[in-house]
């Protein structure tokens, strides 16, 4: 990884954190994280995995779940990006990322806040699916213009 890649990873992490922290409905059982659109970037180019994992980790420090949300978010990202090594279809990767988010975040919300598991899993999974599919559509169309190979 060269200096340019490190800088781009840092910028991606910072944008993810900023979009998550300023979003009033970015956490909880009913959430809509606009920043999740960026999480599909490593499905297009694996050299941006570090930036996204860093961004998720830092952003989740500010969640009401605190450290648990950091661990859950980073775990989801690591699993999803590891699976993407074997799955080359970006749409399938966006789907598997969203399913993982629903299952893991739903579990964290259930264990920490006592929220209904399946409701939380479904709402988080669906909202993540919407944002990751929008992100996939955007980066399929213009990703080559804004992210260097």
From TrEMBL:
Domain of life where this protein originates: Bacteria
PANTHER family registered for this protein in UniProt: INTEGRAL MEMBRANE PROTEIN (PTHR40044:SF1), INTEGRAL MEMBRANE PROTEIN-RELATED (PTHR40044)
InterPro entries, A to Z: QueT
Transmembrane region(s): 6-25, 65-87, 94-112, 118-139
Keyword set, alphabetical order: Membrane, Transmembrane, Transmembrane helix
Descriptive protein name: Queuosine transporter QueT
Organism whose genome encodes this protein: Jeotgalicoccus saudimassiliensis
């Amino acid at each position: 990884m060269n200096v340019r890649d490190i800088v781009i990873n840092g910028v991606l992490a910072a944008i993810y954190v900023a979009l998550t922290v300023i979003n009033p409905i970015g956490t909880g059982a009913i959430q809509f994280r606009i920043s999740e659109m960026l999480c599909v970037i490593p499905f297009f180019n694996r050299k941006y995995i570090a930036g996204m994992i860093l961004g998720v980790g830092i952003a989740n420090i500010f969640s009401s779940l605190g450290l648990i949300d950091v661990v859950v978010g980073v775990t989801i990202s690591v699993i999803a990006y590891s699976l993407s090594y074997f799955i080359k279809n970006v749409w399938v990767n966006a789907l598997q990322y969203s399913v993982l988010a629903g299952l893991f975040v739903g579990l964290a919300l259930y264990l920490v806040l006592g929220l209904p598991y399946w409701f939380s899993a479904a709402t988080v999974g669906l909202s993540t699916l919407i944002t990751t599919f929008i992100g996939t559509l955007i980066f399929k169309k213009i990703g080559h213009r804004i992210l260097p190979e």
